[in-house]
Amino acid sequence: MPGLGAILTAIVTPFDAAGGVDEQALVALMRHLAANGSDGFVVCGTTGEAATLDDDEHLRVIEVAVEAKPPGTTIVAGVGSNDTRHAVALTEGACERGADALLSVNPYYNRPNRRGIIAHYREVSRVADRPIVLYNIPQRTGSDMPNDLLAELAQLDHIEAVKQANNDNLAPVDGLRIYAGNDEILARVLDMGEPGGILTSSHIVGLEMRRMVDEPDERAAIHKSLLPVFEAMSVAPAAVANKTALNLLGHNVGAPRLPYVECDEQETATIRAMLTERGLLVGAAA
After folding, report:
1. Residue of 69, 135, 179, 243 marked active site
2. Torsion of the alpha carbons at 111, 113, 114 and 120, rounded to the nearest 10
3. Is the dihedral of CA 132, 136, 142, 146 positive or negative?
């Protein structure tokens, strides 16, 4: 599997005042994050509000990210859907636009059984020509992919890693590399000898998360120091909390799309207090 990097930021999708995708803000944010610890970006994921992007927007975001990615960084494109035909179409589109890898969540809402999940990924893998990272997040999909199923899926062409967002499942899986799907398990994943994580707090503390990779002797201490960040950023969905933090820090990424709503005063105060405590608001728009 080509090296995708260790700190992969599940990047927000900036929107302009009219609610459209703000391509210039996306490129500016990628550059900022690349200079602050990110090795690559997952675009059109949950934090990127993929659920509210139409297909033209979705594929355009991938295209812009690939064309403008900072030197040395990678682009992982979210291509998941609960409609296999749609997932196949997004997979083909992301490959055509040059994404380095693909992030594919198991079907949500309709919650197919094990045979259905395998059949779904067989169709996705058939049209892919680059690495696929599975995405196991039962709190959003309504169904878990246990590790024995992940190992079975690893036998399909191009399926080479999993973003593991079920902390209870965190263990080696035959045939797959493991990426932390929750920020708070990055240290555990790195201690397992796995590549890194697909993260959201790296929007604001990317350099510290980068140090967790580069300074293993300090990893436990850095992890402990970041727990208040993870807690503060959990006051709202990741897309909402990170947009709030970024806007406070002077990065104009706009508001989330409905059904997400902006942080209320109390939630914003919690995030602002955390940023202030870490000295991040110095010189930024408060």
Report:
1. 135
2. -60
3. positive
The domain limits of the chain are 7-215
- According to DSSP, residue 130 is labeled S
pLDDT tens digits, one per residue of 47-103: 999 999 999 999 999 999 999 999 999 999 999 999 999 999 999 999 999 999 999
What spatial distance separates the first Cα and last Cα of the chain, rounded to whole Å?
42
- Rounded to whole angstroms, the Cα distance separating 80 from 64 reads 19
Q: Is 108 a catalytic residue?
A: no
Cβ contact 38:209 at 8 Å: no
Annotated active-site residue 69? The verdict is: no
At 184-225, the pLDDT tens digits run 999 999 999 999 999 999 999 999 999 999 999 999 999 999
Q: Which fold has domain 7-215?
A: TIM Barrel (3.20.20)
- Please give the C-alpha separations between residue 215 and each of 53, 136, 142, 221, in angstroms, as whole numbers: 38, 28, 36, 10
SS3 261: coil
- Give the integer Cα–Cα distance in Å for 241 and 262: 8
Question: Is 50 exceeded by the pLDDT of residue 286?
Answer: no
What percent helix, strand, coil does the chain show, rounded to 5?
45, 15, 40
Residue of 163, 179, 224, 243 marked active site: 163
> What is the 8-class DSSP label of residue 36?
T
Give the number of other Cβ atoms within 10 Å of residue 15's Cβ. 20
Answer for the pair 200, 242: CB distance below 8 angstroms, yes or no: yes
Q: How many CB atoms lie within 10 A of CB 38?
A: 27
